[in-house]
Amino acid sequence: MGEWIRRLRYLLQRRRLEEELAGEMEFHREMAARHGGKPFGNALRLREEAREAWGWMWMERLGQDARYAGRQLRRSPGFTLAATLMLAIGIGANVGAFGFFNLMVLRPLPVRSPETLLRFKRRSPGSYASQMPYPEMAFFRRHTRTLSAVIAVSGGKLTIEGEDKPIDCDFVTGNFFDELGARPEMGRMFGEDGEGANEGEPVAVLSDGFWRRRFGGSAGVVGKTIRLNGKTATVIGVAPGEFSGLSMSNPEVWLKIDEQPYFVTGSHLLTDYSVDAQGVTMFGRLKAGENAAAAEAELKSLAAELHRERPADIWEQESLPSSAGGYAKNLGGGRHGTGREQGDEAYPLVALGGSLVLLILAVACGNLGSLLLARGVEREREMAIRKAVGAGAGRLVRQLFTESLVLAMLGTAAGLGVGWLVLRGMMRMAKAPAWLDASPDWRVVAFAAGAGMGAAILFGLTPAMQVARQRHRATRMRQVLIGVQIAASAVLVIVAGLLIRALDHALTAQPGFEFRQVVSIDPGLGAHGYTAAGARAYLDTLERRLRGLPGVESVAMTSMTPLGNKKVVTGADVPGRSVDAYMYGIDPEFFATMKIPLLRGRNLRRGEARALVISRSLAAQWPGGEPLGGTFEIGDEKYTVVGIAGSARLVAIQDPDAVEVYYLATEAELPSMVVLARTAGPPEGLAPFVRSVAKEIDPKIQPDVEMVKSSFQRKMEGAGQAAMSVAALGSVALVLACLGIVGLVSYSVSQRRKEIGIRMALGADRAQVLAVVVRNLASPIVVGLAAGVGGAAALAQLLRRELYGIGSMDAIAYLAAMGVFAAMVAGAALLPARRALRVDPLQSLRYE
Amino acid sequence: MPKTEMPSGALVLLILRVLRSGSLHGYAIAQRIHSLSDEVLQVEEGALYPALQKILVKGWATAEWGTSETNRKVRFYRLTGAGRKQLENELSEYERAHAAIRAVLRTA
Asked: What residues does each domain of chain A span?
């Protein structure tokens, strides 16, 4: 340890210490001369040898090399610019992708002490839910000793005067802003005890975005009254734009959770224990010295205590697993179900995205490697001179590699900029909340530096060795580099082809159901406290009145809106594998309204329990072959299959593995039903009528009316953006690879002028001459393309469930992609090759 | 007098040994080794200063300014505690190796 400190001192004071050393040696020389000794050797060299003991010579040499590399690169600005640009693209794509990952997973939310925040979910051996009933949360809050605070958040969509669509509001506990350390941009936030002028009066805190959009950022907003769901609330403050809160829904307004029943008339949120009803997301802050395991253990024993009190509501053996609450990825919406919880669908997509951006970096590195080899030809003289004055191969490799490192540093800096732009563009496009800050933090910078270092090794080390050993003229290395570029860009082009094909398929193919003339009406009965009987009465009236509207062909109801966000899935075990069965609670009119054909058996009958219609896709995998009359277990209940309907992946059109199970909606489910109306003509005109009909029956209802085709368009926009991004990556990669090919062929033409001349003189025709210069391209193209197709097929496996039923080996996508590829590559090879045809045999023979 | 090459590694040991009896400057160290070895061992300047730098970095000696017999300001090297310990280690190590070599030479 002490040795290192001394070494560091030598580094920092090396100028003074060097002078001392020089003085000492001078003295030695004088004394030796006086005593008739031998003359001292080369003082400079001796000093250098003595300094070697300090252990910093490598740094001095590195500095020398870096200075020299800087001079070299300044001398060829064209090359430096091209190399930096290429690296900026390759590194930038990776920095952008990593930046997104960083925002979601690695970077804590901008709230106070995010590391001590936990998010709790419910789990029991048979069930799971990401939200919990408010009273259960309140019970934990009363009794916990490991958590210093409990925060609950419950989302809601509330109408506001002057706007058609309801806005997102979050109902939060009073400690929400204090606990998260948010300071008001204006006015004040909720206080723990609601003190101040507005005591007892409903209050609202506006988001920065909503304040600017709706009130033009006016300072006079504090104290104003707004009407949400027709109920008044006083605006007490505005939250700053960089405040993230604890949900990704990016709410426009925050309201106090104990005032939720005031805004949502009839809501039982504060007292209802049922899991199907709306619940709250529970966050806890750990007390100092406590850990997550202790909190989970405590909550588990509290849940057991509550289970004894309310055995019907709290699950047996209920546990409350926690996850780090202070990260964006944990802010997703709620889900619940029976059986085991599905894995996160996002992981294969994250892996795919990461692979695709790495490929573009691979193309950039391959390209740059070729450029460096080509530069080696120009620098033959320089290398020869260096060798002649005594530089070893190792020293030359080090010097050349230092140049690559300097290039990588330039590329990293530019890549950080490109990545920032890419990420910011993505955020804009996805309308991400303002607090998701795209500017790079230390993790992104470290990642970029790592990527740059890795790239330098990839593109710089081998060429450095080749050039130092004067082997850069060998075509083998160039072929390998071209092959790498071709393989990587082929993967990108094929994956882009698959995505475009899938999008095209989704837009044009029959999905097995008809949605373009269907309007969905979600009256949100459960949120307004409707009982099953009340919901039955409301839904009957609504359906009857809708049928009476001109232009309405049929009306049905369902528990899951087609192309909507609510998904109830049961993992069903069929022999060989488990499938995700989407569970639709419907009424008998559903199939006619969605135009899903009944293939065999019969429809469900009103009032019939324990009967199921399954989709053909599930029937095809049915164990034993004949599904009709077979039984299917949901939870502990046995159901009999009475009919088989056509496959219609209504809520998962992108997933070819999805299968459907239809049952008659139970009474208990009625408060969460959605009504569907099919129109004879275009549905556009119907929405306002439907809205007023739904409100007429019960004025407190705030129906969410939507044309199913709008949901479809939104989904397609997302798929289109994904396809566009990959197509853009693929095009860039392909262009880079083509530039590489152009370079290789041009080089080949200039190297073989003499050979071409001789062949021409001997009577070779044009094809034979062309063959000479493109011959060494054949093997890298064939090998690279084969590797690319293999890589694409492997990657496409990750994508299979997002391709709207297009197979991951879809022939059209592969052939189309390879057609584009072949045309580009042929162009890139033949354009420079034509120069070979213009070689004048006489001149080229006289040339040397 | 024929010049005798210093066995590598031995130089540090010798420097540490001559410094044990008091601090010396670089030239004096070379002289002392030369005279104590009956003028057999010649300390090359090219070897002496790298060895001294190594000793400083390792912390076996410290350098301080003093005045030479010719009235010049010059660095004197003084053995540290760590240097003393290092000297003992190297001495016992040397004795062991030396004894082993002698044993082989005697009996073989």
From this structure: 2-55, 114-326, 346-507+715-846, 518-709
